[in-house]
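Supplementary Methods, section 5.1.

A reviewer requested that the exact input to the structure prediction be made available. We therefore reproduce it here, unchanged from the version used in the analyses.
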Amino acid sequence: MPDEMRPKLRRINISRSQQHGQPVLVLQDPYGISDFMVVLPANILPVLELCDGARDIATIRAALELRAGLRVGPGYLEKLFAALDDALLMDNERFATAYGQARELFRASPLRSPILADKVYPADPELLEQTMKQYFNGLSADVDRTGGIDSVRGLVSPHIDYQRGGSVYAGVWHRAAQTAREAEVAIILGTNHQAGHKLFTLTKKSYATPWGELPVAGDVVDAVSRGLGEQEVYNEEFSHRNEHSVEAAAVWLHYFTKGRGCKLVPVLCGSFQRFIDEDKQPGDGDEINCFIDTLIKATSGRRTLIVAAGDLAHVGPAFGDIYAIDALERAKLSAADNDLVTAIIKGDAEGVFKLVKQEGDKRRICGLSTIYLAMRLLGETKGELTGYAQCPADQQGASLVSICGIVFD
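The structure derived from this sequence is encoded token-by-token as follows.
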């Protein structure tokens, strides 16, 4: 990379970890266009912060020494930026070409292919069937084995991997089993981790699983598109390609609906950070109210299951906190999560948002938008907690993701 080039890092996933006992940064492509993962020493973060396209390499080198007292050897930055470029993590023509090609391939496909198969669950349908049964068989002896209750209209399901969240998944989907089997339409609201600008991103592609495909409810998606505008609901449709949240719940749904004709409405939900930062409430927005009203009308008269595929807190060094999660912090997390779950169980959508806003979302509740919207779609409702867990998020056990399962009547 020539010295006169002005490196610009695009929007990527950066997480903290440890390698050989040393803190590192792990850089990955959120779109999954590149499978490369770049691991850098944690103290190189100032370099990344300077890669905004406004500085050439010589200026970045000088700024590092001036701002951070960090001196790098000859050729180091050039090699670093070349590695980032190889991984398609730079905002440049090379990435734009790869992105365009991947987007066109996705648009041309009638299906949204699974990305978690053989990573989170088996790709072989028979082996997946056995695996799911094992999760259900692993439920504690005091769980009602009658196969669910027919009063369930909605649920909160995690979107963490099954290995860590399997018992919580199994607990909530067991309670919702009867409704899932009888559902004509399932609306899955999944967190959009790719930090897009849109509140709602839909697709008319059916979601594929190892058991076949969950056909999309095209008429419902069309109704939302007409209500909000095609630009709003399809502009970031490519996010569905590599976003795991809807898929994580769709596989559990498909376990119960195979061959039963249930149709899927897959919705990726954007961040509510705009409402947290400003003096606004989600309920005041015309866009959200239009989305809710349109979905309710479009599914009227059909047995509909509402699924919020969202996790709770993300805390610890892996997520940027300076402190490790010890026993005391675990207890604090449990107490804060309990307050949040209590509000969810009450069916108080605005109260849930208020709790998160009051703390400035310092615990990073990534399921906030999905849970809020699910409660709004359900209207007057009450919930029941079916499971809660604090899952390790790094090798040291210093970071946690908390998850829960809740059914709504």
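The first strand starts at residue 13 and ends at 19. These observations are discussed further in the main text.
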